[in-house]
Fold this sequence. Notes:
By secondary structure, the protein is of the alpha+beta class.
Amino acid sequence: MYHSNCYKSSHASTRNxxxxxxLNAFAFADRCTQEERSTLLxxxxxxxxxxxxxxIWEGRRCxxxxxxxxxxxxxxxxxxNGREVQLYRLESxxxxxxxxxxxxxNSDSTVHLVxxxxxxxxxxxxxxxxxxxxxxxxxxxxxxEKISSGMSSLISVTKTLAFVRVEQRVxxxxxxxxxxxxxxxxxxxxxxxxxxELGTAREVVSRILKQFERSGTIKVSRGKIxxxxxxxxxxxxxxxxxxxxESVTKQERCASHGPLC
Length: 261
């Protein structure tokens, strides 16, 4: 059966960007010789994806490797029942282990990727990718490190989904995502977004949030959750939330799952 390319390249606007400037987002490039950098630049093309645009679809053939030079991308699965399971996020200087493996094996994508912000990508066709794996030791090491760390993180994500109670995962989400807004610690999100992030049903998240609200831990309103600075340990003390808020403001990452790639 024919598999169309897993990238929505035809809908992405290619800009006249300096590929050399984008390449500087990747530490391995600094270790390349001048000849290796030149070959790498000749093989890459710079592509721009808009916020909300899907880059990769699960089940479609991966014919290109994507190296993320700027922006943030969400990686997730969709189950047969339509439920999404958040896996990880990718930021500047990163690449997706699942994408790299699919290109290496000439196989279909096992994940979906969507741009959470505008994204700039260095794109490598499969033939060029395989050529660089054979001729550029720094690039080869970068790819193997991303795949290795990705597989380790995938085990961590699997353990969290299998062995950590949803109530605890919701609590950790609240701790990690609250930001200081005036007198309050606030999370701007919806029940559906939390469920997608944590890999559970929206109804389950709504039930848990209602329990927290009844206990006085949080206050839920449309598109917003106010986390109260209680010392009962159910969500966290004011100092805990302040440290977490500052950390998340800087890093903007998921608490439960670090970057898989």
